Structures are given as C-alpha cells and as structure tokens.
Amino acid sequence: MVALPSKTISLTHKMKKIFLSCLLIGLLPIGLLAQSNHVLWYSKPATYFEESLVLGNGKMGASVFGGLNRDQIYLNDATLWSGEPVPDHINPEAHTFLPSVREALKGDHYALADSLNHKLQGRFSQSYAPLGTLFLDFNHQDEAKNYRRELDLETAISTVRYEIQGIKYKREYFISYPDQVMVIRISSSKKGALDFGIRLSSLLSREISTNLNILTLRGHAPVKAEPSYRGNLKDAVVFDPTKGTRFTSMVKIKTFDGHIEQKDSSLEVHEATEATLYISIATSFKGYNQNPVKQASPDLQAFQNLIKAYGKPFPRMEQAHILNYKKYYTSFHLDLGPSTAPDLPTNERLIRYSLGNEDKNLEVLYCQFGRYLLISSSRTPFVPANLQGIWNPYIRPPWSSNYTLNINLEENYWLAESTHLSAMHLPLLGFIKNLSKTGAITARDFYNARGWCAGHNSDIWAMSNPVGDFGQGSPVWANWNMGGTWLSTHLWEHYAFTQDREFLRKEAYPIMKGAAEFCLDWLVEDKDHFLISSPSTSPENEYISQDGYKGATFYGGTADLAMIRELLTDTYKACEILGKDTRFKDILKNTLSRLLPYHVGKKGNLQEWYFDWEDADPKHRHQSHLFGLFPGHQITPEENPVLANACRKTLEIKGDETTGWSKGWRINLWARLEDGNHAYKMYRELLKYVEPDGVRTSYQNGGGTYPNLFDAHPPFQIDGNFGGSAAVVEMLVQSTDKEIHLLPALPDAWDRGSVKGICARGGYTLSLEWDHHRLKNCSLMSFQSGNCRLVYSGKVKTVKLVGGQRKVLNWD
User: Does residue 4 carry a pLDDT above 70?
Assistant: First the structure.
C-alpha cells in the first residue's frame, strides 16, 4: 500500500478533447442522453487512490481499483490507529505559564505572548492507519473490451464488467453492515473460465498465512506515527511488539465448480465459473481508554464473522445489505430539474462541467455522494469519520487523517441532521463524550479551569491537549483550545432536529454544561469590562498589529467569542427546557450580556481581531470569525443586517478561490446570506475537476473534485464533500428553533425541482416542489403536535400540526 507515482497531464488539452467529444455526442437526439444522478462510472480501471471507488459499512472500508490483470483493494478499519490511550497529566505545570501570557497581552506585548504561548503545548495526535491491500491476480492473455467500472449509490454496490475473447467477466463488491464482511463475487459467461489468485500485503507490522483455505493477515499498528507535515523525522513510525492495536483480516473463497489451491501466503482459483470472496476484519480496539494489547486477540471475531457469512447464499447477503443501506439512503431525495447533459464517464462529466456546461444530475450526484460517504464511514459507536472518512492508504497520511477540531471534524457532520442521517451523527456525539473525560484533565492542567476543553487535533484515543510537541509548534495552529466549545454545539443540534428530550437530559446537557463551565473560567475582563478570551488565536490565521508585528496570539478573538456565545446560548436553552440549574442559567444569561460584541472594521468587514488590524493573508482559507453566521445562528440578514453585510464584505475580501473544505464552508455562508447565485457559483467551483497526483499538498490552485468525486483540498479531505452536500440543503431550507425558511437561497440555475425528506430544527421533515423559481407546494410532518412557522419570500404562515400526520400546503 504505497503512494503511486505522480503523472502530469495537460488538463486544458484533455478538457478540449473531451469537450469536442461532448459536442459530437450532443448531436444525438435528447432522448438518447441519459446521465445518472446516482451512478459513478468509468471506462478504465483506477490508477490513483483518488480514482478508486470506495465502499464502507461504517467500520470496514475498501477502495476498489478495478484493474484487469491485477485488481488492488485498499482495506481499512475505522478503529485501527497508531498509539494507545492518552496518559494523564502530560504537562501538569502548563497552567502556571498562563498568567504570564495574559500579562504580556494586557501590556500589548504580542511577540512575548507568542513566545510564552509555546509553554501551553502538549503532544501531537496519533494517525489513522492503513490495514492492508487485497490483490486479485488474473491470468488474462488478451486486451479487454467494453470495460465499465461503476458505483451505484442506491445500492452501495460497485461493479466491474469487461469482455475478453467473447467471454464476459463481472465483479461485484459490497461491504455488508448486517454481516460485517466485505463480499466480492466474480463470474464469467463461460464455464471454467476463471483463473485467479488472491494475496494480502500491509505497510504495518504483519504476518501472512494460509490454513483451511483461509488467507489470514495478522499484525499490529505502530505505537507512534508522526504527522506527515513534520517531515522526514528519525523514528517517525515506531513499531513495538508489546504495544499497539492488533488487527486480523481473513479471506475465504466459495466456488461452485473448479478448485481452490492453497499456497503458503496466497490462494488460487482454477477453472471456475463463479467465485465469491468473503473478507472479514477485526481489531483489538475496545475503547479510547482501554489498552488494546490487553484485549482479546481479534482472531476469534474475524473468524466468527467470516464463517457466519460464508454459510449464507450470496443473494441473501446482498439483499440484507441493500435493505439495511437503503433505509438511510432513500430517506432523502433531490431533483434539480431536467438536464440535457450527455451520458459520459464521471471523470469526463466533471471535466465537461468544469468548462461551464450544464449537468444538474451531476450536482445531485455530488450531493448524494456526500450522504453515501457519511453512511459508509460513520456507523461505529464513539468513532466518527476522520479527515478521510475511513479510506486511507498511507502509513503517515496527510494531517494524520485525524480529527481536526478547528473546522474539519465539525464540517463532516453538517449534513447529518438536515439530510435525514441523524443516526450517522451518533458516533460523533459519543466521541464528544469521550473527549469530555480527557478534556477535563486538559482544562485543569493547561488552564486551571473547571469543565473540559479540547485543542486543535484529536484521535481515536480522545486526545484533548493543545498540540505542538511541548513548544515546537507555532501558536498559529497549536494553541487553539475551542475544540470542545465548538463540538458541544453538535449536541444541541442533535436535540434541535430530533427533539429527543431524553438525549438532552442524559447525554447532551452534562457535556454541554462542562464545556460551558470551561468557557466561564476562561473569560476575562477587558479594559471596558467586556468579557473576552485571553489568550486567543484565530485558527491558522495571523494578524499584523498596529506596530507591524505579524503574530498569532492576541486577546478577544471574534471566533472564540462567537463559539462561546453559541454554546452558552444553547446551554441556557437546555436549562430552560429541562427545568434545572436555575442558578447556573442565571450565570449564563449574565455572561452572555457581558460578552464583547461584534465589531465592523474600517473596510466594512467583520473584525476578526480585537483591534481593527490587517490580516497577514487577507484571502486566508479559514473564516472562523464568521461562525456566528454559519454554522451558528447569531447573525441573519433579517435580524442583524449590519453584521450580515459585514460578513458579506469579509467574504468578498477573501474571494472565492480557496481549498476544498473552505469552499464548502463559504458556500454555506453565502447561502445564509440568502445569495443563492453566489452560493451556486462556488458550488460549481467545488466540482472543478482536479487531476490526481498522489498526496501533493497545494493550496495555490484552490480546491475541487477528483475523478472519484473525492474532495480535493488538495490532497483528499472528505470534509469538502460533506460541506458541499450540506450547502445544497442550506440553499433550499434553513431553520432555527423558531421558524423554517423555504427556498431562502434558491439559485437561478435551479428554476425547477423538488426535495423530499429534508429535515429542519424543531423536529420537522419537509418536502418541497418548485417551478419557475416559485414554490408550488410544501408538505411537512412532525411527531409532536404544535404550531410551525414557515417563511417564504417575505410571507409567513403558521401551520398547526398533529403529531405523526403529514400536512400539505399549496403556497399560492
């Protein structure tokens, strides 16, 4: 499992060639053009990871290349990470330096504050690990014809078809959640035509064996894997046979004819017509605070899953897989109107679309692909989707493929509630509970504060300390400590959409209260007696002070205060709903009234810094100080027009050219500003074709989309996919706990369409239909009786609902 060699192709030349072919295809009658809104397909095998088709059941992941003479399938497991549980008190004296940092800031000594802030750092997170690669080696002697590789989002099944010497070959791949195995069925149209071998490899410490016609890969993850951005460090990856998470993968083949030959480290199939492979994976991870070495060997679990699945007929397993998957995928349907785009391979559709051509079904496909990825990567309790979901071939993946808390992990889940995937939100919510436990130690040791907090990065071990390797990291990214504050708003969002009072009482409120307690202790008074955070950093961004100093550490950061304001407001509401903690509720109310308000700068922008300083990089990819506009609910064009215009000006200054996840966020921000056309312009840019080139990091040309629809940060980060999908919903429906806005940012390009199964805060599920850019009808349902306030085009309707009954409204 290694990075494949890079290649250089003239994108402009390739675009021109494909555009000419599109023009030729366009001469065909419209009735013959039928591009799909749910199928990705390609006319050749994948060469790069970013061309592979990914499958997952929320724990086990696979990246399928679909090669002819050799098919390689990267295998992953959501629970296979480097490292082990976080030790307590890694820097117990860190908080003793906090007063010095604050004192330096009080005297406006920013360089000194930056220097002292290094004392408030801990260790780096661990890395998500690649389990291994499954190879299928075929003995094809001639060229293949009619090759087609596809992924059907409606069934979560990938298929490869081709023909050699008149014999038709077919491979079907899926990963079953009910049976917890991957299944590959290989068939030929001619009896006895299948001859192939299977073998396994891994970049991790491993041993490979065969026994009883079962191919087994055993190994363990590193005890340490340094972040890739730290360069070629000595001992960057360390294996210790006495430490690390153990893993086992087993493969067994079922044939109806032919025979299976067992080698020392491989299996071979000869003269078969059809063969089915069953692949199981298990690890020794049992929890964020459980030593994986002290757990039972994963062999038994892998073997039990394998044998149980092996005894079931393929059609029965396939049906169970599809039924289980569809109950989530089909809960949301999107139609953006008729399209005349030609039926092309997905990579060619992207190139054609990048030239400015219409392809509404590609826009739907991308939105639904985000939902597919979340279903496929987020179904393991307490283990949310990471920076790459669950798909990673690298032992030191980009940014450790970890949980980056200053936007990326949160953005992964923006679409969960609104697109009817609330169940996929639960792994994140469980992870936040784990983080609150380690975060309580971090709050005490680093900040002498109550409650809990979390820093810039985390991992499966719920690491919560600020990173930086005890002073080696720059405060511009290492010292940010609002991760717990931001994450805790997700607990409230889950309640807002589901109205699950028991969840709010038992799970959400205690964690929210702890995060709020940290914020209360973290705030200090400024010279005007407003409450501010000190020290502040604005994620990965730098200022230029009035005396020309370029720095990161300051006080009164707008981003900090926006997140604190949102959390304290949510916690206050929770107190009211639950009827508890009256005194604490009063403290929250008083604190909210004393927070430093937003300020508009001399350029008309929303100030990011306490003073109206210049940005070191005015077009920086982070826009954390706009949190109050989105994903927060503090700024709206209706209620705060001055601040909303300041947000608009900020976005105009930053421009539209940015990385993948950042573009996804900005689309949501433009939607909240009710500028559908600008949001749509950036959505199109998010789907700009990017040629895969391995793991090269480049911000210069902005983000886009790889051939397999992966977000190109670049390199691949999954948050852009999730942010883009969420943005489509934000253009169609926006909601608060008071009202629902219908088609608030509908772009001109989507003049006709419909959406079903879209969810809104307050516990509502809606369906909309519009034509000629006007809402035709709306239906909504809630499991609770009550009044719902709907807003469309300046008009307000209050609808009385009976719990469990759907109501249809003709708006005109």
Answer: no
**DSSP string covering 671-705, please?**
HHTT-HHHHHHHHHHHT-B---BTB----TT--EE
Q: Is pLDDT above 60 for 697?
A: no
Task: Write the CB contacts of 31 (distance below 8 Å, at least 6 apart in sequence).
Answer: none
pLDDT category at 34 given cuts 50, 70, 90 is low
CA distance 643 to 606: 7
DSSP 8-state class, residue 412:
T
* β-bridge partners, 200: 134
What are the φ and ψ backbone dihedral angles of 726, each rounded to 5 degrees?
-60, -35
How would you class 503 by CB atoms within 10 Å of its CB: exposed for 0-12, middle for 13-18, buried for 19 or more? Answer: middle
Q: Among candidates 460, 514, 520, 458, which has minimal Cα distance to 488?
A: 514
pLDDT of residue 5: 32
CA atoms within 13 A on the CB side of 173: 28
pLDDT digits 0-9 by tens, 732-782? 999 999 999 999 999 999 999 999 999 999 999 999 999 999 999 999 999
How far apart, in whole angstroms, are the C-alpha atoms of residue 208 and residue 70?
A: 19
C-alpha–C-alpha distance, residues 603 and 624, integer Å: 18
**CB-based contact 297:167 (threshold 8 Å):** no
d(CA 128, CA 85): 14
| Residue 133 in tokens | 């690669």
Confidence of residue 783 (pLDDT cuts 50, 70, 90): confident
**CB-side neighbour CA atoms (13 Å) of 428:** 36
In the predicted structure, residue 18 carries a pLDDT above the cut 60: no
Say how far apart CA 566 and CA 561 lie, in whole Å.
Answer: 8
- pTM for this entry: 0.95
Collapse the DSSP code of 316 into the 3-class scheme (helix H, G, I; strand E, B; otherwise coil) and give the result.
Answer: helix
Closest CA relative to residue 620, chosen from 561, 705, 559, 566: 559
Do 356-731 and 11-81+127-335 have the same topology in CATH?
no
Local structure of residue 556 (DSSP, 8 states): S
Rounded to whole angstroms, the Cα distance separating 625 from 793 reads 29
Which pLDDT band holds residue 701 (cuts at 50, 70, 90)?
low
3-state secondary structure of 393: coil
For residue 727, give the nearest of 774, 766, 675 by alpha carbon. 675
What would the two tokens of residue 769 be? Answer: 């239909």
Domain spans of the chain?
11-81+127-335, 356-731, 753-810
Sign of CA dihedral 678, 680, 682, 685: negative
The CATH code of domain 356-731 reads 1.50.10.10
Q: Would you state the pLDDT for residue 32? A: 38
CA–CA separation, 108 and 553 (whole Å):
10
Calculate what percentage of the chain has a pLDDT beyond 90: 91
What H or E segment, with its residue span, contains residue 260? strand 259-262
Per DSSP, which regions of 445-527 are E strands? 457-458, 523-525
What is the SS3 assignment for 259? strand
d(CA 635, CA 642): 9
CB atoms within 10 A of CB 394: 24
Please give the DSSP secondary-structure letter assigned to residue 505: I
Fold of domain 11-81+127-335: Beta-galactosidase; Chain A, domain 5 (2.70.98)
The CA distance from 633 to 157, in Å, is 39
